[in-house]
Structure formats: C-alpha cells, structure tokens
Write a structure and sequence with these properties.
The protein has 342 residues and is α/β, with parallel strands linked by helices. The chain has 2 domains: 3-62 and 163-341, QueA-like (3-Layer(aba) Sandwich); 66-142, QueA-like (Thrombin, subunit H, Beta Barrel). 23% of the residues lie in helices and 27% in strands. Helix 8 (303-312) packs across helix 9. The chain is globular and about 60 Å long.
C-alpha cells in the first residue's frame, strides 16, 4: 500500500510536551465498531469494559539510553536501540561520519565504548568498557530518550524520569516507553479490579526504531527493526483460557499488541515467546490474539498509524483522527488516549 494513504495534517499545538496530571485524567476517544465516536476520559475505562475482559500491559522499563560524547574533537551522539549481550548495544549514532570501527567514544562520568561493528542501516554496535552493568553506566552518563517531537521543542529534565515511565515498569531495556500505559494510576487499577477486569503483563523492549520515519513510498518496501520480547507460558495459558471463555483480550499499547500477534499461531492460540520480533502490521492483517486496543494518537505515515488502520479500517481511523483534531485532543507520547474495539 502507498504510505501516503496514512498521512494527515496535525496542528503543531496539539503535540503534547507534558502529560496531564493526574495521569488518568487524560481524554480518551472511544471508537467501537461503527458506533458514533464517544469523548471520554481514561478514568472512565472501567465503565467501558466488561467483567472478565483482560488488559495486557508491557512491563518494560525505559533506560537512560541517550548519550552525548566525543571521539577526539568530534561530538558523537548515541541512542541505544537494542541490547546484543551484557556489554554490547546496537545504537543509532549522530555524526556517524566521524566514527569508524575501532574508535573509542568518551561519554561523561568516565563511561567509554568501542565502536565495534557498523550495520547496513548505519547503526553501530557499541561495546562498553569495564565490568559494571551497562545499566549502571547509563544511570551516570545517559538521559531519558524522549521522542524527537518532544526533545526538539524542549530539553529533557528531571520530571521526565518519572513522567516517561509506566507504573508497571520493571524489566530494564526499553528505549521508548509503552506510552498507552502512562495513563494508568493505582486508583484506576483498583477501579478496574472492582469491575472484574483482569490484568496480564508481557515484556517487549521498545527500540528507537519506533521513532524512525517510513522512508519508503510503499509499505512493501519498509523494513522494521527487530525488538526482543517475552511472554511467559503461564501468561499465555491464562490469555488463551480467557478467550476460550468468551472474554476479550485488549492490548494496552501497540507494543503489547505486536508481541501478542507475533506469539499467536494460525488458530489464534498464544504461544510462549522469548525472541526477537519485527512484525509489521498493515491493513489486510488477520488479527489472531487481540479483540481491542488502547493506544495514544500516532504520527502521520508511521507504522503505528498503519497498525491502527489495520485494526479498525483505514477510513474509520482517518475519521477518528479528524474528530480528535477537531476536538483538540493532545497527540503522541504525552498526549491523550483512544480505545479501539473493531
């Protein structure tokens, strides 16, 4: 399909630079089948779900994955993208023309990394020196990797350390937050439990590739970056049992959805999973594992705009986004939410 089919015009003032407080006071656009759109709040979620519905969250934790350093006199920026092993990360590099294989980059707090390999997409494998866990090095030398549409408008600050982390975060490794879950608070979780809504978690370490623009003119020519994910056998069993009982599985965020769809077999049975996935969901995809999605509003011509169009239909999503813009919903990572039930 032509990538231009997923374009739309977004007023810049609708890009949220900070989340609302409390988190669950964000607005939520509800699109359920062909019913009229409903303007709700995230705090209304319990009343919009049925007892027995299962919300699936991503428990990945965002690490301070952006680093600014030097190789000699040259400034080198690195955004870690994907863990390779205990000391090696694949990274997108700014000013990459000044970095060659074998060079050492000096980051703050005496953190050093060797440019070990260059990949076809221009990224590098960086091997961090020393014996300390890389996560500890990043806590000293790195900063939170805010999306470009926020970082380009204001600097990262202390608030982002908590704002850009979900209350489910426990597994270090993400370079981007699973932002749909940023809206959840302990009070909202308690209300969902009282409603009889179940919760499950999985892990998908979101990479920086999620922010890369689709440069191809046709979706067939776009290559997704791989991300590592895990679904425990017990989690898969409970999700399959819920669906057998006629209950809905609703992914909280496109990351949860992509991993569930990666793990589901042809019969819609969710299998245990511990591997990379580079699944690219576009219109025509047959959804096998999910019955709905809670997600924020996505960039024009992005892979995530293609995903929600696959779930709901392209024309339906164009209508939903036109409604959201007209009603001045806040867009992107720190913005408002939507509940999509095909």
């Amino acid at each position: 399909m032509k990538v231009d089919l997923f374009d739309f015009d977004l007023p810049q003032e609708l890009i949220a630079l900070r989340p609302v407080s409390p988190r669950d006071s964000a607005r939520m656009l509800v699109a359920c089948g062909d019913e009229p759109f409903a303007d709700k709040s995230v705090s209304d979620l319990p009343s919009l779900l049925q007892p027995g519905d299962v919300l699936v969250f991503n428990d990945t934790r965002v690490i301070p994955a952006q680093l600014d350093g030097r190789r000699g006199e040259a400034k080198i920026g690195a955004t870690l993208h994907k863990r390779i092993d205990l000391r090696r990360w694949q990274a997108f590099v700014r000013n990459a023309k000044r970095l060659k294989i074998g060079n050492v980059v000096e980051f703050p707090a005496q953190v050093r990394a060797l440019a070990e390999t260059r990949h076809e997409d221009g990224s590098f494998t960086l091997k961090f020196e020393g014996e300390e866990p890389v996560e500890l090095l990043l806590e000293r030398a790195g900063r939170m990797p805010l999306p470009p549409y926020i970082a380009g408008k204001r600097p990262t600050d202390e608030r982002d350390k908590s704002d850009y982390q979900t209350i489910f975060a426990r597994e270090d490794g993400a370079v981007a937050a699973p932002t749909a879950a940023l809206h959840f608070t302990p009070q909202l979780l308690e209300a969902l439990s009282e409603r009889g809504v179940q919760r499950e978690t999985l892990t998908l370490h979101v990479g920086a590739g999620t922010f890369l623009p689709v440069k191809a003119d046709d979706t067939d020519d776009h290559q997704m970056h791989a991300e590592w994910g895990r679904i425990e056998p017990e989690t898969a069993d409970r999700l399959n049992a819920a669906r057998r009982n006629g209950n809905r599985v609703i992914a909280v965020g496109t990351t949860s959805l992509r991993l569930l769809e990666s793990a589901a077999d042809e019969d819609g049975i969710i299998q245990p999973f511990a591997d990379d996935t580079s699944i690219f969901i576009t219109p025509g995809h047959r959804f096998r594992a999910v019955d709905g999605l809670m997600t924020n509003f996505h960039l024009p011509k992005s892979t995530l705009m293609m995903l929600v169009s696959a779930l709901m239909g392209r024309e339906r999503m164009q209508e939903a986004y036109a409604h959201a813009i007209a009603q001045k919903y806040r867009f992107y990572s720190y913005g408002d939410s939507s509940l999509l039930i095909p």
